[in-house]
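Sanity check. The docking grid for 6-O-phosphono-alpha-D-glucopyranose depends on where the pocket ends up, so I'm generating a full predicted complex first rather than guessing from homology. Inputs follow.
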Amino acid sequence: MCGIVGYIGDRDACPILIKGLRRLEYRGYDSAGVALVGGDGSLNVYKCKGKIDALEHFLADKDTAGTVGIAHTRWATHGEPNDTNAHPHFSADGRIAMIHNGIIENYRVLKDALTAAGVTFRSETDSEVLVNLIEYVRDTEGCTLEEAVRLALKKVVGAYAIAVVEKGNNDKIIAARQSSPMAIGVGKGEYFISSDASSIVEYTHDIVYVEDGEIAVIERGKPLQLVTLDNEEAEYRVTKLDISISDLEKGGYPTFMLKEINEQPRTIVDCIRGRVNADSGRVILSGIRDNIDRWLAARRVVFVACGTSWHASLIGKQLFENICRIPAEVEYASEFRYRNPVLFPDDIVIAVSQSGETADTLAAISLARKAGAFVYGICNVIGSSIARATDSGTYVHVGPEIGVASTKAFTGQVTVMAMMALAIAERKGTVSKEYYDEVAQGLLSLPEKLKEVLELSGQVADLAKIFTYAHNFIYLGRGYNYPTALEGALKLKEISYIHAEGYPAAEMKHGPIALIDAEMPTVAIVTPDVTYEKTLSNIEEVKARGGKVIAVMAKGDATVPGITDYVIEVPAVIDCLMPIIVSVPLQLLAYYIAVYKGRNVDQPRNLAKSVTVE
Ligand code: G6P
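Predicted complex below; grid placement will be based on this.
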């Protein structure tokens, strides 16, 4: 949600900043801008509505000289996406430029006070209030830029990652963070700032994560310095980031989403590597092993998550209840954080997040920790805020996910949850050896089965062509595949803008059945499990009302083709792992429908990949 980048060093800053913005465009693409400090101390700010392409075009005939600069790609919160509301923002006298990711919650009070002091504003943004506050403090206190930033931030309530430069000073960038991600890349005689460390790996793998309440003083030719809001020196650690540039490129695919869908056989291998032993079939996760007493004593697990991660958590609930016999609840992090939930010291809160930066999930973690619960993270992004805020955890290890619609992270999250459930169940003795082995072997078989599923791409694309006309879709599933139906519907909504609802198949007759007609297709997931026969009846109910049904069924099922209009035949695996298989054709269906509708699948309207505001 908004991407920020910065550079200071010997190279031309502008091309580095633009490249960085392109890597961060998944965080928002309403407008973009850069501020450059030239060798003569001039401060040039260029910004415009639209994507990075528009900014690059705008910059073509501008003076972009300078070895210091900051840049921003925006996901609008306060004020519509237009040139004026784009970042960087200036202070009223044009001396200070700032980029901001986050929300200044008390901006109205601050704006009133600054207006009373004679400050005039150009934009409707909360960010412009902050840059003017910094200038006001600088003028009234007569202090350094870093001191002005520190004193101004002490008056701010909200979330921010900011970077600030000043006219006449091409040796310094001041950056700060509270609840919005910020990484500083340390190169040879140069520094890089980014909302997402992976965006700067082509320059350096040495990363410093700025923590909440810290201000970074980044000066040319000097060691990096971090101070707290109370002006105390903060210690920091340089972490090595293990990502290669090819992970960040499309690798010959037209979109990141298609690349990420197709990567799933490999990402599941990466996810289970070193965790499910291919010879013994035993599952070992250090996060479970090292905290086994807590897991064995857990009264309950509470999943907190948003979006696709919330859907994965609904599957996690069933895995934990069925396999480990631990009661499980699933909460929207945004609801949980404001609900005064009942938490016991022997509860385990599991925070699930691809990005590890979702603001609501972070807030839910801090609430859970205050209540004394042990918090376990299931994150994909290594070193992310959630990974660092949790007591322990398991990384999903599916590599950077750049397409806004989550795909490989979902299948990875469910895989992690299944491994966790097995590792706990083995110690709790809640499953038989046969069942344990079947799930473990099922996990090991996933990569080959996913390859088979991907061979259906052409068939799914043909189906998508038939259904591109639809304005509404319903997705039905039961048991483990009810959340898969929710996730399938979400994928379609996100990237094609077709309205879609996911529903537990039997519940359909309590409302959505009224919507069924020849115009509204139903996607029914009907794979072997305890509700198989029941789901067949639910499909008959749709057919009896003239509905068109696309079924996702297990290979070789002779019954389903006879009662449905179209079938997608996927290889079967034990029921608790079936969502990992079934979700892939649903991702492809949404993908191709969106493509046929001419949508930008990697950058769907109004969405952002990482939601760092609440
Ligand atoms: C956004 C993304 C979704 C994602 C959700 C939660 O809405 O567009 O794809 O599922 O945030 O994000 P997280 O990173 O916490 O899993």
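Relevant for the grid: The chain has three domains: 3-246, 252-453, 455-600.
Also worth noting: Residues 455-600 form a domain with the Rossmann fold fold (CATH 3.40.50.10490).
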